[in-house]
Amino acid sequence: MTTAMGAALRRIQVGTALSAFGNGFTVPFTFIYVSQVRGLGAGTAGVVLATFAVAALFVLPFTGRVIDQRGPVPVAVVGTVLAAAGSLGLGLSGSEPVVIAAAGALGAGIAVVQPSLATMIVWCSTTATRSRAFATQFFLNNLGLGLGGLLGGLLVDTAHPASFIRLFAIEAAMFLVLGAVIATVRMPHAPQVDGAVRSDGAASGGWRLLLGDRAMVMVSVLGFVMFFACYGQFESGLSAFAVEVTRISPTTLGVALAANTAVIVLAQFVVLRLVEQRRRSRVIAAVGLVWTVAWLVAGASGLVHGSHAMAVAAIISTYALFGLGEAMLAPTVAPLVADLAPARMVGQYNSAFALVKQLALALGPAVGGLMAGAGAYGAYIVMLVLCSLAISVTALRMGRHLTLLQDSPHLAAARVVARSAPRLPAGTDTDTTVDVVVDSAQAKDLDLDLDLDSRVTAAADPAARIPAAPVGATAEARPEPAATVSR
Description:
By secondary structure, the chain is mainly alpha-helical. 68% of the residues lie in helices and 4% in strands. It is built from 18 helices and five strands. The chain has helices at 2-24, 30-37, 41-70, 72-92, 96-123, 130-155, 161-183, 202-211, 214-229, 237-244, 250-275, 280-301, 308-329, 333-340, 346-373, 377-399, 404-407, 440-446; strands spanning 415-419, 433-438, 449-450, 455-458, 485-486. The strands form two sheets. Strands 1-2-4 form a three-stranded mixed sheet. Helix 4 (72-92) runs antiparallel to helix 5. The relative contact order is 0.12. The model is unreliable at 193-204, 415-426 and 428-487 (pLDDT under 50).
């Protein structure tokens, strides 16, 4: 099973990378293509970009339930075909209604594919491997987008509309390749959600059960603030601040965006090694602090009037710090959503989080653009500093509502053995002990409080660890554990 899961996961990751590569060909040029090359104006281009978000908001509330009922593979394949049709339609259409309709198909298709892929990754991973799986997906996404954008910039020519058609055709082809790869993946028969709170009747609870999950609600609130205060500002308020207040050129802004991608690509697996042995709630809280510093540095760049070089360096550092925070979130938030989900609601939990993300990505640019248009840049920086601090506070509060395994997935490496004495005649005293075997580093990181009666062994030799499942205990002998572990 493990080998099959690994092979399926590798195919999913390769398909994801190819899709991101194709997407990178068109993302930076869609606005220019609609407004200038097709001559439909900036207003129509804005409507096209808004249609992406609206289409996603329309389909996501239903996507999760279908994924849980039909499985992620057929849903993902349908999404790739829809996205390919929308991409090709954008390249070939020249009238406003057709362009908007094609944008809707592309946005809906991508919105369907994302939670389907996330669910497939969950099914093909375990609590112990899930963080690395999502970090790899995030790395490949950014690498694909960066390479696609670079090659797209070399191929595109505003004087020749055919060059743009070529870009959209490449994107459509990559979506179809993703669909073909996914269709050949042999998925496990059951989702591997080891840390989830399982419930056989979970699917019937639907949105009511999800909204009653306080930990998931707090994760969703965190997700909204994170996407609003970071991703939602890249192409609106932050870029306007950089150009209007810091006075950098559009070319330099492109360098800053490249610095963001470079930090993610170069630092992702270094960051992964640093955060995968830490509590998720504390990692997310640390991201809030990193982004607080980023926004303060951005604000300072507008106050440095004597040295343009320092102002430019500050803006580039801002984008780089955002990239560092994104690299910390990749192995943290998406796996946490999966581990919170009951086994039969993984698709619905992933879709709910994607819906929150889309809401933030729709409102973030709108709010940032309005404040930039009003020239309220001081209030803008203060608002986003407060948002970043709110991420830290909310993350720490959320940690109180997580189980030990949900907050600290590396605890899955700890080995717990329950040992009981054989059943003895009535009236005979029994002596039941529990050995808790943990790494000393894990015990220190988790701040474990252990009762004096417990027997705790720090296993210096990994070979000494014993399988995690309780062994030796029978249905007739159910002793009370002698060790209690609390956070």
